[in-house]
């Protein structure tokens, strides 16, 4: 992705000013008519500045022209992109969320972040991984824009985090069940839930997003898994397989997914809220 032109209406002491970042084009934005004219620069010398000059982290192989109508606020984000020299595509935060194809907040896996289909709105916020106050240049890099839930976006504003969700997940970090007493088969007070790692960065991330605290609210799901583990013993599973294999479910794994109520592969955790929790505890209980 090449940043070509940036129009800033209001940002700190910059008012109604255009910035041309590419020597390949000359651009002019008419803020009265709301029109951008882009011309190839006849005097352009290819690779004069060497490779990678003016290139931000690539989201698609697309050149972007950003028309900021609210400073750097991505809530009002409007961009036009050219997939080729001739084809113009409007781009905005709605499309970013759609194209990333994730359905849950990547910071917490607790909330859905679907787009609204009819009114083209979003149920998510757009978090700036590197804050736009400290790093205004990255405010327009797609790599820096993380669709997230309201709670996480707010918590992160108060506390910077080190792990970029496109780069790392919660590797080797699992939810663990701690049985307290014999009531654990029918009461959420009979066990504790813990989410901890041996990695300082991950632990800091867990702390920033208050995941240990927030996930205590989902202990009812764990209780159901404990009860299912007691009901669906091996002989009952065999019985169900004899009866329904090939009709209600494909195979044993399919039946186990149905019982645990979650996706069990790591790649699919972002598809459904609380999948990481359900997967880890189902694993621990031997349900999957
Ligand atoms: Zn979240």
Rg from alpha-carbon coordinates = 24 Å
Small ligands present: zinc ion
Strand order, largest beta sheet: 2-1-5-6-7
Tally of domains: 3
Strand content: 15-25%
Low-confidence stretches: 48-79
Discrete helix count: 8
Pairing-aware structural class of the strands and helices?
Answer: alpha+beta
Please summarize the sheet with the most strands.
5 strands, mixed
Task: Compose a concise summary of this entry.
26% of the residues lie in helices and 22% in strands.
Structural account:
- Mean pLDDT is 77; it is low at 48-79.
- Helix 5 runs parallel beside helix 8.
- This protein folds into three domains: 2-91, no CATH class; 97-158, no CATH class; 174-285, no CATH class.
- It is 26% helix and 22% strand.
- The chain has helices at residues 93-100, 150-158, 200-208, 211-215, 219-231, 234-244, 252-260, 275-285; strands at residues 2-11, 14-20, 25-30, 35-40, 63-68, 79-82, 88-91, 125-128, 145-148, 174-179, 191-196.
- The strands form four sheets. Strands 2-1-5-6-7 form a five-stranded mixed beta sheet.
- By secondary structure, it is of the alpha+beta class.
- The protein is built from eight helices and eleven strands.
- Strand 1 and strand 2 (14-20) form a beta hairpin.
- Residues 105, 107-108, 110-111, 148-149, 151-152 line the site of zinc ion.
- Zinc ion (ZN) binds at residues 105, 107-108, 110-111, 148-149, 151-152.
């Amino acid at each position: 992705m090449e940043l070509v032109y940036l129009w800033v209406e209001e940002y700190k002491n910059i008012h109604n000013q255009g910035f041309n970042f590419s020597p390949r084009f000359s651009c002019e934005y008419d803020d009265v008519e709301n029109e951008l004219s882009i011309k190839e620069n006849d005097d352009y010398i290819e690779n004069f500045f060497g490779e990678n000059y003016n290139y931000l982290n690539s989201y698609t192989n697309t050149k972007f022209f950003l028309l900021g109508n609210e400073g750097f606020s991505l809530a009002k984000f409007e961009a036009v992109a050219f997939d080729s020299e001739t084809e113009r595509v409007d781009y905005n935060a709605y499309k970013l969320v759609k194209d990333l194809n994730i359905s849950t907040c990547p910071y917490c896996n607790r909330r859905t972040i679907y787009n609204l289909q009819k009114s083209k709105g979003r149920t998510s916020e757009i978090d700036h991984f590197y804050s736009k106050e400290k790093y205004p240049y990255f405010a327009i890099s797609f790599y820096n824009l993380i669709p997230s839930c309201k709670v996480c976006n707010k918590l992160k504003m108060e506390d910077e985090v080190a792990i970029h969700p496109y780069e790392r997940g919660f590797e080797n970090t699992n939810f663990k069940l701690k049985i307290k007493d014999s009531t654990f088969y029918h009461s959420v007070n009979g066990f504790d839930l813990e989410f901890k790692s041996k990695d300082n960065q991950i632990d800091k991330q867990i702390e920033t997003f208050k995941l240990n605290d927030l996930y205590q609210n989902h202990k009812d799901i764990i209780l159901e898994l404990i009860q299912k583990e007691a009901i669906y013993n091996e002989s009952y599973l065999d019985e169900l397989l004899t009866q329904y294999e090939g009709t209600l479910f494909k195979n044993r794994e399919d039946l186990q997914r149905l019982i645990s109520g979650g996706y069990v592969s790591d790649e699919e955790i972002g598809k459904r809220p609380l999948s990481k929790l359900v997967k880890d505890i189902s694993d621990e209980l031997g349900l999957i």
